[in-house]
Amino acid sequence: xxxxxxxxxxxxxxxxxxxxxxxxxxxxxxxxxxxxxxxxxxxxxxxxxxxxxxxxxxxxxxxxxxxxxxxxxxxxxxxxxxxxxxxxxxxxxxxxxxxxxxxxxxxxxxxxxxxxxxxxxxxxxxxxxxxxxxxxxxxxxxxxxxxxxxxxxxxxxxxxxxxxxxxxxxxxxxxxxxxxxxxxxxxxxxxxxxxxxxxxxxxxxxxxxxxxxxxxxxxxxxxxxxxxxxxxxxxxxxxxxxxxxxxxxxxxxxxxxxxxxxxxxxxxxxxxxxxxxxxxxxxxxxxxxxxxxxxxxxxxxxxxxxxxxxxxxxxxxxxxxxxxxxxxxxxxxxxxxxxxxxxxxxxxxxxxxxxxxxxxxxxxxxxxxxxxxxxxxxxxxxxxxxxxxxxxxxxxxxxxxxxxxxxxxxxxxxxxxxxxxxxxxxxxxxxxxxxxxxxxxx
Length: 442
Known about the structure:
4-stranded antiparallel beta sheet; 17 strands; 2 domains
């Protein structure tokens, strides 16, 4: 790059800071007028500068920023490999699909094998099980941790059970002690969906480091953002090779983009029924996809990583403020609880409206939304009652009574770092007005 180009690049990046200050000024919070979102992107001039820096390379696929992020993210987790993909949902798809690889020998998952999971959650935790011809076995959840009821694991297992695939709900770790003991006892695979839980720990160890594979999302709602994006974590290098193959069209070649002949025998392979010497770049060992991330997205992630610890701490402090401020409303609401021996990295604040409260869940939501406080349901509720899942092959353990309770009674509000002290105060005041207004109406 010429010295003139370098100078122009520096001038452009310097102007980004001025642009951020002008385009994204901090606005005052006006109770009842300013929206209180459940989630959102939290960014600064450095994030935009990193994005623009990447765009000036005009390297539009995975590149130097992606490689940098993968190394930093894996190091932060204390795990050997991290593979960037285009979304958290794609990460889930690749993690489960990786377990079907012939490279795993007799332990590979095959159509008809059973996978233990839960029905109350986000669809793309469960969808890859179905998409790979596997059979989901649905276990109920425990309230108020909103995680899998581990007392049902033994009942859920059959001779066809091969894996457990579950998420850490809203950043609250599931009982990893019980689950890891169960998978070790029966030699099962474990996939941790950590899309909502980056930074959460169980017995001092980060979630995402217990299973064979783990997944993360970088959608704007999550702990750090790349706009879109996700990641698959794995300790074993074999899994990185398999995940990258499925991500990159199913190819057998492991060369980085823009490179060739990393293996030193590009034209000396003989695989399948192909002629010897067939170009390794065009040999396919899996039926794959193209789920790569762009380097511009990764550049935002590199910048966001610097803020991850403070983002996690802010989520925890916002959660604590809401919990302390709402505990006197226990006759109306069931407040969330952390899984024993865990420290969650909260994605949201789940609340169950007690059946005996003078208002129902829909009325509570309408009350909050009418005052500009955004709410969300606990994702799909009972997925088996969703139209997309009618008629799927599956098994159910028990009645899923708590899952239906979640579907009917539970919602959540935000704790993301963009929620200020003023917003928290307004949220608490509004919650306390809710029972008073409804009791007066009665």
